[in-house]
Amino acid sequence: MMTTTSAREEATVSVTGTRTAPVRPARPRRPDRRRAASSLPYLLVAPAVLALGLALGYPLVRQVLLSFQEFGLAQQFGQPPEWVGLANYEQLFTDAYLWRVTLRTIVFCLVNAAATMVLGVGLALVMRAMSTPVRLLAQTGLLLAWAMPVVASLTVWQWLFDTQYGVINYLLTALGGDFEGHGWLLRPLSFYFVATVVVVWMSVPFVAFTVYAALMQVPDELVEAAEIDGAGRAQRLRHVIVPSIRPVLMVVGLLQVIWDLRVFAQIYILQKAGGSATDTNLLGTYIYRLGIGGGDFGTSAAVAIFMLALTVVLTAPYVWSMIRQERTEA
Amino acid sequence: MSRSTTRPARVGANLVGVVTFVVAAFPVYWMVNSSFLDRNEIRNPVPTWVPFGGDLDNFRTVFETDQFVNALRTSLMVTGLTIVVALAFAFVAAVAVSRFRFKGRMSFIVTLLVIQMIPVEGLFISQYKMLETMELLNTVLGLTIVYVAGVLPFTIWTLRGFVAGVPYELEEAAMMDGCTRMQAFLRITFPLLAPGLVATGVFGFIQAWNEFTLALVVMTREDQRTLPLWLSTFTDVNSGTDWGGIMAGSTLIAVPVIIFFLVVQGRMVSGLTAGAVKG
C-alpha cells in the first residue's frame, strides 16, 4: 500500500512556484546513529544554511522591518525611511480593496483546487477501467500537459482564446454560438475563467498520476472481498477505495491549495494580455504592483507579510504532520 | 479490478481516455502546429489544423532577433550556475543530514520543509530591496542567488533520500578492506549517487529554466531578460501579435523541458542501488 510517507515525499513543493514532478527516492533508511563529535556535519550544512539565510532569511527580517516603515518614492531617492509603527497595517486593514483582493485570492484558490481535485481524482478512477492502449494514450497527453513550462502554456492558451483568430472562438461559433470576436479577458469573471482553465489544465496531471498510483496500491483482495459481500460499485468506492487512499488525497489536496494561492505568473501574464489589473488582481500581483510597480515598499511589505501569514494558517496542518512523521523516523 | 469492468463501462472509460488525451495534448500540438504556419495561415478565420506546407520561417525570425539570443544566453547562464551551486551545496548538506547525527539536524530539516511552503510572492519585495542594495539587480549573480535558495530545499530533501538509499554497510565494507573513510565515500557511495545527482540536477534545470516571477522582479532591464520574460513581452505588442513567432519561441523553450521531464519521470523510479546489494 502506498503510505502517506511516500506520497509526501513525492509531493514536495518548491519555492519557485513550479509544480514539480513527483520524485520517489529510495525509501530513506533511518539515519545513522553514529555520533559525530567533530564539526564536520556543521561544515557540510554551512553552505546551504548561508545561502538560505542570505536569500530568504535576511529578506524576511528586512521585510518585517520594512512593513513598519514609511518607504515610498522619497525613500527610493535617498531619504531615510520613517518608522510608522502599525500605520501600514492599519491603512491596509481598513482598505476595502485589500479585502476584496484577499477574498478573490481565496475563492480563486479554492475553486481551482476543487476543480483540479475533482477532475484529477475522477480521471484516476476512470483510468482503471480503460483498456491499456487508451490508458497509455491518456497518460501521454497528461504527461505533455504536465511538462509544459508555465509561460509557454500561458502563451498557447492566450492564442487558443485569442479574440480574432483563436480556435476556441472558431469552434464555439461553428457550434452555433455567437463568439465571433469575443474578448475573453475583458470582463473579470471571464478573465478568471480563462485563468482557471489554464491552471486546472496544468495541475490535473499531477493529481491524476499520484492518485492513480495510490489506487494501484489498494489490494485487489480488499475490493474483491467487498464485492463478494455484496457491495455495489458506489459502496466499494466509498467504503473501501476512498478510505485506503485518504492520506494521499489529503496531501494532494493540500498541495493544490498551496499551489493555487500562488498563481502570480498566470494572473500577471493574462493581465498584460488585456485584463484590467485593478479588477483582476490577486494577492501576488497586488504586492508586485504596489511595491515594484508603484514604489510603495512599506505597504507592499505589509501585504506580503499578510500573505505569508495566510499561507502559514493554510499549511500549518500539513507541516505539523510532516514534522511529526520526521520525529518518529529519527 | 479490471475483471469487474463491464463492456459498456469500458467503452465509456475509453471515451473519457480519448477526450483526456485530446484536451491535454491539443494545446501542446497547437503550439507546435502554429509555429510552422505563416502569417496568412495564422490570420485565416478558418484554422489550419495540420501544418502541410509549413516552414521554419518563424524559427528563423526568432533566432534572428537579438532579444532572443540575449535571453537565451542569460537563461543558460542563470540556469547553469543555479544547478552547479545548488547541487554542490545540497549534496554536502544531504550527506550531513543522512550520514551524521548532530545537534540542530532536526531544526534544519524542519526549516527546509517550512521554506518550501513560502510563496515567492510573499518575499520578493524584500529580495528586490536586498539585491538593489547589493547592486545585484539585473545581474546573473543576483538572480542566481534567489534561484539557488529556491531550489535548495527541494534538492537537499530529494538527495537526502538518495544518500540514505545507499547502505552504509557498503562504505563499512570498503573501510574494512583498507579504504579511509573519505576514500570509501568517494569510491563507493558517490558513484552510486550519480543517478540521484542527475535527476535532481534536471529538476533544478526545469525550475530555473521555467521560472518567471523572480526573473520579472530581479531582471528589470530589457537586455537582461531570461527566456520566459522575453516570451511574455512578446504578446505585449498591441498591434497585431505575431502568434507564429510566439509559438515558435514557446516551442523552443518547451522542447528541452519536455524532453528532460520525460527522462526524469522514468529514471527517478528505477532502483538506485539495484545490483549493489544482492539478495
From TrEMBL, chain B:
GO terms for cellular component: plasma membrane. The chain crosses the membrane at residues 12-32, 76-96, 108-128, 140-163, 184-209, 243-264. PROSITE patterns: ABC_TM1. It is found in: Cell membrane. One of its GO terms (biological process) is transmembrane transport. It is a multi-pass membrane protein. Belongs to the binding-protein-dependent transport system permease family. This is N,N'-diacetylchitobiose transport system permease protein. It comes from Nocardioides cavernae.
